[in-house]
Amino acid sequence: MRGRKKILYLITKSNQGGAQRHVYDLATNLPKEIFDVSIYAGGDGQHAGHASWLLTKLREKKVRANYLPFLARDINISTDITVFFHLLKLFKKERPDIVHLHSSKIGGLGALAARIAGVPNIIFTAHGWSFNEPWRTPLSRCIIWTLSLLTALLCHRIITITKHDTAQAKKMPFISEEKIAYIPNGIRDIAFLSRAQARIALLGARKAAFADDIWVGTISELTKNKGLDYALSAIVILKKKVAEPFRFIIIGAGEDQSALEKEIRIKKLDDTVFLVGHREDAATLLKAFDIFTLTSLKEGLPYALLEAGLAETAIVVASDIGGIPDIIEHNVSGLLVPPQNTAAISDALTRMILDKQSAKKMADKLRKKIVKFWTIEKMLHDIKKLYK
């Protein structure tokens, strides 16, 4: 079908995450009679069993999905040069109409290679600017900001998924406002399991002992960016402040799992905090939680937060960063807390546990807001306009 537009999607990592979910939604929902789609992605060996989540899921849907060898998040001059020349060869061979880049590393390498290869439409989606990561050194953040600017200059269009990232993009020198398109993520309806079913699915036989407890939960990669160490410290404080028994359930896998398991033992939280690992069906289990929390240090527009809002019974306590304030209006549709603030997290959780009537009202308002503004149909419609 010669008349179809050829799109190459490129992303740095193929483990399960928000950016990967975004690419999956695009690749599997664009009309096949109009677009010829291929995906190229690196891997992440530290996420054993889930390194190729994106490629595996796409192949199940009969989408052409390819592994990019040597592509990794961390900077390595030797392998990055290898990846660059591989991309240059790929673009010259495939001659795509559109190269759509996701995440910082492939954004820079891919934009430069695509420009040299003469690709007519180069698009970069910023899933949260990497120079906002607070744990990086000032020098590292400065270097990443410079590379992000170069990526923005080389691309024809920049998609931002949050208002915060949009404002930062507009402040970049030599980047016109016309070049920037604000297109937030969108989700479909979810077939949630009931509260009882979800709790059994998460903790099995142990669920019976905790059936009537308050469940605080999150869906999160176990990485530094997610701020789970602050959540654990908040749980320690919460145990001293709240008489009602509660559990903290963490769904997800990642490179910090061993460190978090050690922290749980040191803080003597073995009977309170449960790392249940990666769950393919994580979103359907959200009704297990009375409170959903996301204590990230850096975020784009998190799918888990949108899904928790749809669950309605999962009340949100989330960091006031990135695209989270786009979703949560403080004291109206949830509670926002400063990142890296253990006391604030604990206070917010305490309030949600003790004031159940206000929590229910916030949950109702959040669900109505998500259904209105964050649909996958709107996201696809807006992105397709950039492909014309």
From TrEMBL:
Domain of life the protein comes from: Bacteria
GO MF term list: glycosyltransferase activity
Pfam families found in the cross-reference section: Glyco_transf_4, Glycos_transf_1
Occurrences of domain Glycosyltransferase subfamily 4-like N-terminal (ranges): 17-187
Glycosyl transferase family domain ranges (all copies): 211-368
Record-given protein name: Glycosyltransferase family 1 protein
Coiled coil, from the record: none
